[in-house]
Each structure stands twice: as structure tokens, then as C-alpha cells.
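Example record

The entry below shows one chain as it appears in the dataset: sequence first, then C-alpha cells.
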Amino acid sequence: MSLARRWTRRAFIATAATAVGLIGLKRYTGDIHKSSAFDFGSPADASSWGKDWFSTHYERRQGVEHGRAFLTLPEGLPTTAPDQPVPIFQLDHDCRTFELRLMFTVDNPTLRPGLLFAGRGAHDYLAATVEGDQLVLSQFGRASRRVLAKAPIHAMRAKALHDLRLSLRGTRLEATLIESGRTQRLVHEFDIIPIRGAVGVLAVAPTNLSAATLEVSRYEVHSERLSDTPPLATYLISGPPYIEADQRLVRLRVGTSIPCEVRFEWANDRSLADARSSNWISAAAPPFTATTQIAVNSSAPTYWRAQLRSISSQKTTMTPVHTIPAPPTGAPLTLVAGSCVEFYDERPTYGYRRLLAASATPPAMMVYQGDLGYANNRYHSCYAAAEDFFADRFIRFLADPLFAELRRTVPTGFTLDDHDYGPRNNADRTDAAPWVPPLWKRVGADPTSLGYYDVVLDDVHCLTLDGRRYADPITTENSAAKTKLGLRQRDWLERTMASSPASLFVIFSADIFASRYTVPGSTNIPDCFSSGWPDEYRYLMALFYRHQLGGKRVLILSGDAHSLRIHYHPRPDGQASRDPVVEFICSGLRPRHWFGAATGDPTVDPKRNVIGKAGAGMLAIAEATVGDRSVTLRAISGEAAGVTDLFPPLTLPFRPRK
């Protein structure tokens, strides 16, 4: 249950007063038997706060110098989402009632430092923060914060020593700030007893976006009972199945809330009574994930879960069970695709649940085609274009409970797109951040780290494409050599299709082949194959038509363009085609803006062209019966209720007509 459901406000009293000197920290006698205090008198070259502390923002300048712990945040992007938190958890000091104390200074008074409590995992906690001329009590969650109460105070001053004290007894929460003899207090009462959770220090990004440093000279925690911090899974993924050395393999990935060891267990029985297991695998290094690959049964589902063991306390927890379906052999086959989720302060994305409900058979695979929470964006980006901030955004995106619900039964692969590579819209090989591919390799569970891979499902061959990492800039003058895929990826695509015995190719591309609307008067070239890389567009269409004219259908499922529409691509040689190559643009699950086809584009299907509706794509392939097998393309709504299909489903013969 979320903190929002557990905590409700009953009364709020705010007072501000002036006192002479510092008031003492209130002490209880007889009932407090657990406490700890940090004076941070460590050596000047200490590189961390110590083994009792943990931060997911592993690239921040932090450590201990001259008897003070410090945390430095860089200058923020002007496009940044508001109120982005950087927590530092005190491990194995979880408590229900407490007294906390933080003595600190800041060099930038728009930095918002404070004390966090009731932490449940990496993203959910409450905090009392000093924010300019207010004391603020907030609930922080995966994709937003909710302010619960505020109290006016004297404005925080740079370099001044502040003493923040937080006390929770019963249902009464009291925050006190002392600076230069001035005492200011916030009192908040709740209807129910608070939950047990982690405590620690929080820095909320500066409002003026300039660099800032928090220095902590003393930190204390006192409680009737302190307990170990349970290790929790932030997310789990079963990757797409792939073939290696004649084995069908699946990569598993678990993200952890604190430094852990992970042991995977898997079996063909849902109870996992006779499960095989991996050795303990370390998830102690950033971004705090563990992975393994397993061979899966060719005739029965595989079930798996993971056990997490805290490195600091040895406390263990077990994840829910996930299912990897058996590979299809002539049975109906469902594939789903989606992309583009702007999640910060947005409504939940119900497309994942609607895809599950709409599928007549459990989907065999999902491919999420880029823009994973928009780490880089013109709106609500990460605070900084840095690896740890991108990792935080990727993991928060993957922790979406509705997406996690889908992944419990649907193997999921990914392609990255421009907002994942950064540092700008329409990223290409010249400016894509070099640390993104190795970071995603440690976050995802894709078959390869190249950004592209293939998956064989019976007589259906799926291939993913990366149109960013290897792309020549869109501004480069067009020529036969200009490429969006890069020669190595394009050669792989040709070789894989040429050697495949499959009857149907499904091309999952984060970037679209068809046209894209451009604002009138804009000098920007629409970022799609057909207009930005026209020679390569014709080259690839010629490739796809060679296979389709040879009796193997080619379907393209793409993202990026924020619309749901069908395009019928003509033959590049100008000859008529009875059965054209079909592209299904199925994006996005929760974007902020929408982009239709270019005005007058003759390739778009007027009956299947939806703008301004959240949704995703579904490909339903009928059972392999003789003579009447079909392929149906459906645009599934991303809203919680209402119609399921956003346009009339398009049904095609499994094999193209000659």
C-alpha cells in the first residue's frame, strides 16, 4: 500500500518563535534503547559518508571533509522537472517513531535540505525540508511529490548553521528549525499510526538550478526500536528469448533498493518447489542490479523469482513469481509494442493493463520502443544529463506498477530512442551520450548490448532496430552513404532476413519510416527515414519488398511519432503492389504532444489515423491452420476506460498476395 493511503492529515499547526540559544533535543528516558549519532570526524579524504549510508545518485560529489559530510549537486538543466529529490538513506535504522536531528549549512539557499522518514524502497518516503522561507512536509513517490503541510519560517541563509529536528510520537509529527537563536516549528498530526520505514537525509534540487552543496556537521537518530532495512526489488524484467548454441535462453534482471546480493530461482512448476538456482550475484555496484541468463523449456512455461539479501544486515526478501511463456508452435501468437511515457506528475499509464485485457492469448513478447520516461526532454527532464540521473529516471520508469504487472507474464525487450540517449531531441551518433549504452546494459535484459537484436517465435521472426546510436546527423546532406542505422546494423538486418526460414518478419523500430508533420515555417527536417534519410529509406523498402514479393510478409511496428496510424509504403521502383509493406505507428502510451503524418501523405490509411489518444500496438497472429491464417493489427487505448480499439483493426493474410 502506498504512503498516500496510509497517511492522512487531521490537523496542522504552524508556529514561529524566537528563543535564546539552542534548545536541547528532547530526550525520553526508559523507552529509547537504540540510537546513533554522526559527527563526521572522518579523515579529510573520505570518499563516502560511510557504510551506514546509501545513495542511488552514485556520481554526485559526496564524502567527508574536515569533520563534515557533504553532497554537491551540479547546475540543473532549464528543462528539468521540479522537486527532484536526491536521498541518502541511513541503512538498518528503520523505525516507526523517532527523533531525528540534522545540523547543516548550504552555500545556495535555494537548495532544499531535510530529513526523510517512513522510507519504503528507493522512491517512496516522507520528508520535512527547509525550502527558502518555509518548512515543508511532503510525500515523495515514484513520479511526483505531494505537499502535505507548510509553515512560514525566517528565510534560510547561505553558510549559516541550521539545526533541523524532527520528532514523531504517536500521531504527532513536530519539525523544529533553529538558526542563530531563532526557533521555528511545524506540527502535523495524522489519523493513524505511521508505518515503519527508513530514515535519512534528503536534498531536493535547487529552485534556481545553480550548483549547490549541502554540508552536514551532525546527524542523530533516536527511536524505541531500530530495525534492519529490508532489500526490495525496484523492478524485474524477463527479457526476450534468444537462441545461442542451440539453446533457448532468456536474460533475467532485478533492480534493488539497497546494495544487495541476488539469487535467482526458476522451474517449470509455479510453486518452484524443485527450483534450480543461481549463485549469489552481487548488486552492490551502481546502478544496483543483478542479472543472469537461463535456458527455458521449449514445451512448458518457466517460472522465476529472485531472493534478495542485504549486504549490510543479511536480511532477505523474496520477489513475486514471474512467468516466461512456452514458445508457440502453431498456436495463436500475440505481440505488443508501445513507447513514449512522460511520467513525471502525469496520470497513470493504463495502456499496459489494456494490452493484457485485450489479448485473446497471453502476449508472447512486448517491445518497448524508446523514450523511457524522457530523461532528456524539453519538458520535465532529469535534473542533469549525467549517468546517475538517467539511471534514476530509467529505474523510476521501470518501477511503474502497471508496467510491472504486464512484465510479470510478458517477456519484455527495449529499443532506446532520442530522449534516452540525450543530450537533446533527435540524438544521433555525434552527440548521443557515450555512457548510455553501457548504462542500459546494466539496467535492461535485452539479448545483446548493441541496441538491436532478433527473436524467433515459431515461424515469426522479430527484429529490432536502433535508429539513433549509429545515425548520421539529420542535418547532413543526403547521399547514398548517409545512414540512420549504420552499415554494421544494416548489414546485420540484411543477413538475418536472408538466412531466416520464417514466413513473417516483424520489424520493431523506435523511429518511423513514414512521414511526420512539421510545424509550418519550421526549418526542421522531419526526423524519419523517408524525409531525413531518403536514400536509406528506399534501400530498406527495396529490401523489405524483395522478401514480401518472395512470399514473406514484412510488417513494421514503430514508435516516436506520438500517434496511432497505418501507412502503406509503395514500392521504391514505382511499380504497383497488390500487397504493400505496412507500417503501424503505435505511439505513445503517455506523451504530452502529438504528431500526425505530413499533410497530404498518400500512404496513410484515413480510417486508421488517430491523433491525440494515448495507446499502444497489438499484433495478433492466427493459429497456423491451412489456407486461412491471418495477421491483425490493433490500436489499443491507453486510457483506463472507454473503447478498446482506437481504430478499426486491420486484418491481412499471413502470406502476402502476389
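Notes for this example: The two ends are 56 Å apart (CA to CA). The chain has a mean pLDDT of 90.
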